[in-house]
Design goal:
- The protein is an alpha/beta fold.
- It folds into 3 domains: about 80 residues, Arc Repressor Mutant, subunit A (Orthogonal Bundle); about 100 residues, 3-Layer(aba) Sandwich (D-Maltodextrin-Binding Protein, domain 2); about 100 residues, 3-Layer(aba) Sandwich (D-Maltodextrin-Binding Protein, domain 2), CATH 3.40.190.
- The chain has 11 helices and 12 strands.
- The strands form 3 sheets. Strands 3, 4, 5, 6, 7, 10, 11 and 12 form an 8-stranded mixed β-sheet that branches. A two-stranded antiparallel sheet has the order 1-2.
- Strand 1 and strand 2 form a beta hairpin.
- Helix 1 packs across helix 3 and helix 1 packs across helix 4.
- It is rod-shaped, with a radius of gyration of 32 Å.
- The two termini are about 60 Å apart.
Length: about 300
């Protein structure tokens, strides 16, 4: 028994007539009669008492119509909800954001998206880029922000910012009056870094190793403002992206260009290549790409 057969059955029961049901459903009366007869043979019961042109439900027919009405209603509700999803009226998206990225780039994007699609809910998970990348790859998140290039296989992405890391030191630091500093000159300093679940943690340590030293890490945090405050009270030095450096109060620290090497910081939106993406998630990716990479938007231009 399928939905179409149930709809025929319900309409005959409502109108108490095969002819009227056929007219209401825009099918022929023989089609209705054949369908009901086939249902009776399949179920092994008589559904209608036929008295002339008028039909009445049997006890078995009444039982089946009651269940059929519930099934048809559920199917119609399902269809309506799917239409809502296709038309982006509803949906839910789980997005992973590194803490240092969220406040700088995404409040406006999320706000504009919510204005356009108020029934789509967004759940944000704040973790380091390394953890976000892993969670997207494992299917725990639909989409996320990570440092490019990614390590996990099977991920798609588009970049939306490409900068470099700057050196942040206390004003009393011996190098504070310089404009540029080479990484090797920092071998004797204490470093304040992001935690190990942040991609920058591994990248900075790897670049220090290439420069010939193992950095002495004295403190780790997940918050860029706390890291800058640590530097501001003279507890160590740090390397932060240009975007973050623009947010730091310049009265307590000095921000210098790091050269030899220049350490790039490239961010991108990532998602699984082989995973089904909901209508809402696909629209979020498209919308975010449009806003974040728009050359006419000074706040987000690269």
């Amino acid at each position: 028994m399928d939905i179409r057969q149930m709809q025929y059955l319900i309409e005959v029961a409502r109108l108490k007539s095969f002819t009227k049901a056929a007219s209401a459903l825009f099918v022929t009366q023989p089609t209705i009669s054949k369908t009901i007869k086939g249902m009776e043979e399949e179920l092994g019961v008589v559904l209608f008492d036929r008295v002339g042109k008028r039909v009445e439900l049997t006890d078995a027919g009444q039982l089946i119509v009651t269940q059929a009405q519930q099934i048809v209603t559920s199917f119609q509700n399902l269809t309506a909800e799917l239409d809502d999803l296709r038309n982006l009226k509803r949906g839910h998206i789980r997005i992973g954001l590194p803490p240092m990225v969220g406040s700088s780039f995404f409040p406006r994007v999320i706000g504009q998206f919510h204005q356009r699609y108020p029934e789509i809910t967004i759940q944000l998970f704040e973790d380091g880029a390394k953890k976000v990348e892993s969670d997207v790859a494992d299917g725990l998140l639909e989409v996320g922000v990570a440092v490019l290039p990614t390590v996990q296989e099977g991920l798609c992405s588009f970049p939306f910012v490409e900068e470099k890391l700057n050196l942040v030191v206390h004003p009393s630091h011996p190098l504070a009056d310089r404009e540029q500093v080479e990484l090797a000159e920092l071998a004797g300093d204490g470093f304040v870094l992001f935690r190990q679940d942040f991609t920058l943690h591994d990248r900075i340590i790897a670049e220090c190793a290439k420069a010939g030293f193992q950095p002495h890490v004295i403190y780790e945090s997940s918050q860029w403002d706390l890291i800058s405050e640590m530097v501001g009270v003279g507890l160590g030095i740090t390397l932060l992206p240009e975007t973050i450096c623009r947010e730091i109060g310049k009265e307590r620290v000095r921000i210098l260009s790091l050269v030899n090497p220049v350490i790039p910081w490239k961010l991108g939106i990532i998602w699984r290549e082989d995973r089904y993406l909901s209508f809402a998630t696909r629209e979020w990716i498209r919308f975010a790409q449009e806003v974040l990479t728009s050359p006419g938007d000074n706040e987000y231009s690269l």
